[in-house]
Amino acid sequence: MTPAALEPETAAANALPPLGVPRPQTPLQWAVRWHAVLLVACLLGSVPVLHTVWHGLLGRREALIPTRSQTPWPEPDWADLQSGAWMGRVERHLQQASPVAFWLRAPWNELLLACGVANSPSVQVGRDGWLFLRADQGSPQSFAQRRAARAQTFAAVRAECAAAGVELFVSLVPNKTRVHPEFLKSALPADATYATVLAELQAVGLPVVDVAAAMAAAKAAEPTRPLYFRGDTHWLPFGALVAGQAVAAAVEARCGASLGPRGAVQLGPRTTFQALGDLVAMLGLATADLPWVDGRRITVGLSLTAHSFGELREYYSVASADPALATRLDGTAADAPVWLVGTSFSRENGMPALALALGRPVRLFGENGAASIAPMAKALAALREPGAKRPGALVWEIVERGFFEPEWAEPQFSSH
Fold first, then answer.
1. CA–CA separation, 215 vs 173, rounded Å?
2. What are the structural domain ranges in the chain?
3. 3-state DSSP call for residue 31?
4. Which pLDDT belongs to residue 402?
5. What gap in Å lies between CA 315 and CA 203, rounded to an integer?
């Protein structure tokens, strides 16, 4: 058969089908289509299946991959049930708890971070991998409106401590942005929060420790030595020691004679491990919060990007060089001459650093949160207990950004 005879057949094979008639799918197109349909079906079906098995059949309360950014299960409220707001919060909780959503969201956030366009509502990315909390810069209007509440609170706490025969000190902890502004990508607007609170405390004659000044002096002496973690809101052990020495010097100068003799105190055993900071956990990267010791949790990386933010965490203890000394130095001694009403900074080596600098045991009333209102309520309740062993000095640790938290709008110091 001649090539000319094949031309009609070839033309017929290559001719387009009439309009409105679908072209037959090739086997490859069918395979791609059905694999895509199957993938979407698995993604959609995996969420209810995982929640049913994990939370329903196994009865687990926490998420399959627990992270710091997850919202807790919302407690039902009749008004919210009627308005539908409760279901909206439940939906958001289930979305955040879904491992499918986790592994879709985390790589996207890590890609944005690698491109230099990371956008987090709570974390600001600085230079050289440094991270900062956006809440360090609060509302100047709300801060000004709370001036009367601050004055009343300082006066009330001081009066109650004076009635118990206890000398009150305030340790004002500066924000990370104030201590290390050199790692910010852009200069922050002028902020007088720290100076304003410092002046308010000095105006009422309340002893206040200017921790920011002590840290500035430490930076001037060793410019290349950081005082705060790169990926965490808290200070390094060296920063805690600088603050502890400043507070101890103020306490010794004012009422050291009434605290009893110094003991032979030294650093005890330490715990060292590699972990991620709280700011890394807030970025939305592939991280998980896992149980650790003493009821605390540790953040670990589940990807190379997240793992690259790991930093060495060191937690120090304080011990007596005299084996015959029975006083406990772990922050629980009921007869400690100094009480520390602290925040998470106290747990991040703040309490051991103060005990080491004082050479005396310190009793800790500490809770997470920068406002330090709740632990002060517990300390005041302990002072009111009949027959309680009262300290000679009480140090109230408040983080600068804590004055923007809701607790300082109307501080409450209930006895329970």
1. 10
2. 28-114, 131-408
3. helix
4. 94
5. 37
The tokens for 361 are: 């045991």
Strands 362-366 and 311-320: unpaired
Determine the pLDDT at residue 192: 83
For the entire predicted model, the pTM comes to 0.82
Per cent of the chain over pLDDT 90 is 48
| Close Cβ partners of 406 (under 8 Å, ≥ 6 residues apart) | none
Q: In this structure, are residues 65 and 99 in contact, taking their beta carbons and an 8 Å threshold? A: yes
Single-letter amino acid, residue 199: A
CB 394 within 8 A of CB 372: no
Cβ atoms 100, 51 nearer than 8 A: no
Radius of gyration, CA atoms only, the chain: 29
Question: Side chain identity at 136, as an amino acid letter?
Answer: D
Region of residue 292 (left: phi > 0; alpha: psi -120 to 50; beta: else): beta
Highest mean pLDDT among 98-107, 223-232, 272-281: 223-232
Q: Which residue has 């439940």 as its token pair?
A: 90
